[in-house]
Write a structure and sequence with these properties.
This protein is an alpha+beta fold. 17% of the residues lie in helices and 27% in strands. The protein folds into three domains: 3-234, Galactose-binding domain-like (Jelly Rolls), CATH 2.60.120.260; 235-452, Neutral Protease Domain 2 (Neutral Protease, domain 2), CATH 1.10.390; 471-678, Exo-inulinase, domain 1 (Jelly Rolls, Sandwich), CATH 2.60.120.560. The protein has helices at residues 261-282, 317-321, 330-343, 355-370, 393-406, 411-421, 427-433, 437-452, 471-475, 634-641; strands spanning 3-8, 25-32, 59-64, 102-123, 131-137, 160-166, 176-184, 190-199, 213-220, 238-242, 249-253, 293-298, 306-309, 312-315, 479-480, 490-492, 502-505, 508-511, 520-522, 528-537, 542-549, 562-566, 588-589, 594-595, 606-612, 617-621, 624-629, 658-661, 668-678. The strands form five sheets. Strands 1, 2, 3, 4, 5, 6, 7, 8 and 9 form a nine-stranded mixed β-sheet that branches. Strands 15, 17, 18, 20, 25, 26, 27 and 29 form an eight-stranded antiparallel β-sheet that branches. A five-stranded mixed β-sheet has the order 10-11-12-14-13. α1 packs across α3 (330-343), α3 (330-343) packs across α4 (355-370) and α4 crosses α5.
């Protein structure tokens, strides 16, 4: 059989190949550019992704390479769901940044007559095209090797090469959706049980050249027609708009929140259409153009308020349902996220971009330009003692407003320029105002006190006992996991370093920018232990402590049970602080009629004790015991089977693993993190 690749440059272009001979393997490539790509993956000659094909129940395994911890697991390739936006890492599988792809094996379970193999991808830039070699095998060859690593030629160990795919366009922009379909003009590719994808990166200009693979479908010739994934019909619950002036396009998706449709059309869309181009003009830099296409999605997958990844904004429907009144905070919260879409501080990758500015600038634009009449970032006499330029989103906005009014009306655009170019440093403040940052901080605090007519509170003295162990604790076997000085002993999940959204600040381990943080894990693994720590969470914040985390899952929560952390007053997630996520919660408190809650309000320190032992596991907050459970017990396993974790084969299976701190749902700081290993 011969192999031939047919290129369709866009959904409306003509075929570029000559007619095909009989019994010839044919690979069709279709590309839909950024401006026309929609969640349904609607190609002209390639069917939309399926949720009932032969790959749905197949076993996917990484043979060589390592998945990127910022993306989805292998399950995203055959879970019957597809991305709804061009930059949605968690909805795609991709190999680790800096790596040259890897190999993925698919075990269909038994030999089938394979009619067609389709692969789908979507990204706004060079991570959209697909580059791979596709092999197949029935597993019956005497020399068959099911998992050949790089360096081993699959054709020499029982595999057959079906296709050599390179979907990179020879001209024009690479971003958009790609569909690749391999079939045979005779109707069958052959009878196979195993497939092997040898995947390569698309470019080497930077470490981010690994394709965002959204779905892999395998069509059984003898099976009933497949059913399209739900995403293929998402256009029915989405509206497309243009900004004022028509330069930019955006979509609002509300499949999980049809009750918000009228609000998005009548209130949110006009706000976005007006303010996005205004924000883009506020934050310019030479050679930079703000994204001309972005998406706002209301999805039950996200719990919090809203968050932005690239050009994709996700919003929690539960929170917005309570904030759509004429004076609700809904539109303002989206304006904050629009600033993140514009910011795109890509030029400073690897640099420690200060999270307080990444979040402070959006809140400055929101509270002082979009809705100044709400006075949402004002600081009261009660909050003056905690006022510090990097204290929280709103506090930072207040500081930026004061500095702008006093020293430089273009201060925020100039800071934005330095951040985007990767040249920001604290010395920037001296350059722009002739005052150092700490000096400005004290001047601002004094101005606040004068305006409030109160005396400026004295700064609290540092507590010498923080992040230390007493002689008694040392003798009992306690070990510090954080010394208050550096990240020693921690790194991001499936990464070597710590992302810039995490900082060591004032003796705390601080998640200051959830958009650039990710989850961090200990270098060391722990089996049975007692863990204690203090945490201080932001308003509406959400975080968590996972244990027995392994590298087998695509995310820390895929293997590690989670001790939930959140602001119980304003966080949208119904799973409350101290609960074992989706599995156990404390009893009802007779005094309130609600689940027991021993937490202190957001902005105050809370103490956690977590005991994990073979006999029992205990959750405590501020000295109050919530509940006990036994890992692997009949009760525990029954609860897991009824939860979302039932579909995660590695969940709670390990008896040893990393401790993880969640950093992608809100600002939170930790201190006094210590552990006492327990011998079984």
């Amino acid at each position: 059989m011969k192999m031939n690749q047919v290129w369709i440059a866009c959904a409306c272009a003509a075929l570029l190949s000559t007619p095909l001979a009989q019994a010839e393997i044919k690979t069709v490539v279709e590309h839909i550019g950024n401006d026309d790509a929609k969640p349904g993956f609607k190609f002209k000659n390639i069917s939309a992704p399926s949720k009932t094909d032969a790959a749905t129940k197949a076993k996917f395994t990484i043979v060589d390479g390592e998945q990127d911890g910022n993306g989805g697991s292998l399950d995203t390739l055959h879970d019957g769901a597809t991305p709804t936006d061009e930059d949605q890492p968690e909805a795609n599988f991709f190999f680790r940044q800096g790596a040259d792809g890897g190999r993925i094996q698919i075990d269909l379970g038994n030999v089938i007559d394979v009619k067609q193999i389709n692969t789908y991808s979507w990204h706004r830039d060079t991570r959209g095209p697909q580059v791979y070699k596709l092999y197949a095998a029935d597993g019956k060859a005497a020399n068959f090797a099911a998992s050949p690593k790089r360096g081993t030629d699959p054709e020499k160990v029982g595999w057959k090469l079906l296709a050599n795919v390179d979907a990179r366009p020879k001209a024009g922009k690479a971003g958009g959706q790609y569909g690749v379909s391999t079939s045979d003009t005779g109707g069958s590719l052959g009878r196979y049980r195993y497939l092997l994808f040898d995947i390569s990166k698309t470019e080497a200009v930077d470490p981010f050249g690994n394709t965002f693979y959204s779905e892999i479908d395998v069509i059984d010739k003898n099976a009933p027609p497949t059913v399209e994934v739900a995403g293929a019909a998402v256009e029915d619950t989405a509206d497309d708009y243009a900004t004022e002036g028509g330069r930019e396009k955006f979509s609002i998706l509300y499949a999980d929140a049809p009750d918000l449709k009228d609000w998005t059309r009548n209130i949110l869309a006009p706000t976005v259409a007006k303010w996005y181009p205004m924000i883009a003009r506020m934050l310019p830099s030479p050679g930079y153009e703000a994204a001309r296409k972005f998406t706002i999605e209301f999805t039950n997958r996200y719990h919090g308020v809203a968050a932005t990844g690239g050009t994709h904004i996700v919003c929690d429907p539960a929170w917005y349902r309570n904030n759509v009144a004429p004076k609700g905070q809904g539109p303002g919260s989206v304006v904050h996220e629009l600033v993140h879409v514009v910011q795109q501080y890509k030029g400073a990758r690897g640099a420690r971009i200060p999270g307080w500015l990444v979040e402070g600038i959006p809140d400055y634009i929101r509270w002082y330009l979009y809705e100044p009449q709400t006075h949402g970032a004002e600081i009261t006499a009660r909050g003056l003692a905690q006022a510090r330029y990097d204290g929280s989103y709103r506090i930072s906005a207040n500081f930026l407003s004061w500095a702008t009014n006093k020293y430089d009306k273009d201060l925020v655009p100039k800071l934005n320029l330095a951040l985007r170019q990767g040249s920001y440093g604290d010395e920037q403040w001296t350059k722009l105002t002739n005052h150092g940052l700490e000096e400005l901080n004290e001047e601002w605090r004094q101005a606040l006190a004068d305006d409030l007519g109160v005396a400026l509170p004295a700064a609290a003295a540092a507590d010498p006992t923080v992040n230390t162990l007493s002689a008694i604790e040392k003798a009992a076997g306690w070990v510090l996991l954080f010394d208050g000085k550096d990240f020693n002993g921690w790194h991001n999940f499936k990464d070597q370093g710590v992302h810039p959204g995490w900082q060591v600040k004032d003796g705390t381990l601080a998640c200051v920018d959830p958009h650039q943080a990710g989850d961090i894990v200990t270098t060391e693994k722990f089996g049975w232990f007692e863990l204690q720590l203090d945490y201080n969470i932001s308003e509406a914040g959400n975080s968590g402590i996972m244990y027995h985390v392994t590298d087998d899952g695509g995310a820390v929560w895929a293997t590690g049970p989670e001790f939930q952390l959140e602001d119980n007053v304003k966080a949208a997630d119904p799973v409350r602080c101290g609960w074992l996520y989706a599995l156990y919660q404390p009893p009802i408190d007779p005094a309130t009629g609600k689940a027991l809650d021993a937490t202190k309000p957001a902005g105050q320190w809370n103490h956690v004790r977590l005991l994990i032992s073979p006999e029992k596991c205990v959750h405590e907050i501020n000295g109050v015991k919530y509940f006990e459970y036994v890992l692997g017990s009949e009760d525990f396993n029954r609860r897991v089977a009824r939860s979302k974790f039932a579909s995660m084969p590695g969940f709670a299976k390990a008896t040893s693993g990393y401790i993880a701190l969640q950093g992608d749902h809100g600002s939170v700081i930790f201190r006094n993190i210590k552990i006492r290993p327990i011998q079984p």
